Amino acid sequence: MIAKVKKYATTNTLVIVGILLGALFGSILPELALKQKVLGTAFVYFLKMLVVPLVFSSIYVAILGLGSVEHLKRMGLKTIGLYLLTTTLAVLTAIIAMNIFHIGEHVSSAGLEFSQASTLAPFSFESMILSFIPTNIFHALSSGSMMQIIVFAILFGVASLYLSKSQQEPMINLFTSVSEAMLKMAEWVILLTPIGVFSLISYVIAEQGIEVIFGLYKYILVVVGVILFHALFTLPAVLRLFTKINPYRYLSDVREAPIMAFSTASSAATLPVSMRVVEEMGGVDKKNASFVLPLGATVSMDGTAAYLSVAVLYIANLAGVPLSFGDQVLLGVTVVALSVGVAALPSASLVMMVVILNQIGLPVEYMALIVAVDRILDMCRTSLNVTSDLIVTKIIDEYEKRR
């Protein structure tokens, strides 16, 4: 255990150094920073390489480990309920913050370029629901369609519960071995984190430029402030409410995962690291982590929900369209509902923003203004998404251990 603590402590220190040096390198030598993107991209690809086999095998083994459909139903309802609770609290925090600060009310929108916003694909609730069902599981596996993989893995696991023990045993042994192998590979990839973070941060800074950040500093400050408040106060309070453990000590132990999420801007790519860290450093039982974390990587979107709430209210202020209390309640409900459909990939929430803006009747073209800093804020909100996953996983683990 001591060796593991030292390993993660060293990695964390190097990651922080990588973030600082990457920001400096991207600011001073932007041309070189843009050319070395391949290092960061390769790092993310290595992580994504592990996701599909890890998610499928982990969920399958976790469901068989539960032993019964009743246990799965009880644990699943608690998990979904907690994820909805934390997402609702994130949206509520964002709406309150925007009603306090009123940013965007006196910002000129003259000269905006609207081309970026108009390229987003149309979206509907019907297509979102049907997209959860894999018509070809092999295509879903090859394309990395996370929700489809999770749905099939759950159904496959539930069906296997009705098999005889002799039929279940070879399946459990196979997928347990696959899961262990993926986690071992994740350990190797974690060693590359400082280099990957340096490359990704430097590229983002070089591509976006410091000027863009300064131009939207009020908007960025509110988004980041809401994310930090939810991560440092709301989520710890939820963990403390449902358990008796020290939330800040736990978050300190598993901080490797949110840092990784910040650098990759992808909940899915962070999943192998989250599973390894939460078991080794967070004291979570592997069976519980294998069920809750893969589910959270797709349906838990606290950061995305908070970001969408701030962004939509900011656009409403820019457009001079005041939203009533009822409109803001509708916004909150819509964001919580749609957050489940957001893919665990960078910037997928922009599609959700189009849906919300169209529903409320706000001009989609105003998205062009905030798209410029979306990548930077995507890193922040993904880190919060993963932090929420870690909190819910710990709560479920504590409940299961009490049983």
Automatic annotation (TrEMBL):
Protein topology in the membrane: Multi-pass membrane protein
Location (main, coarse): membrane
Organism: Sulfurimonas aquatica
Subcellular location, record wording: Cell membrane
Gene Ontology MF terms: symporter activity
Top-level taxon of origin: Bacteria
Name of the protein in its database record: Cation:dicarboxylase symporter family transporter
Pfam families: SDF
Entry keyword Transmembrane helix: yes
PANTHER family: PROTON/GLUTAMATE-ASPARTATE SYMPORTER (PTHR42865), PROTON_GLUTAMATE-ASPARTATE SYMPORTER (PTHR42865:SF7)
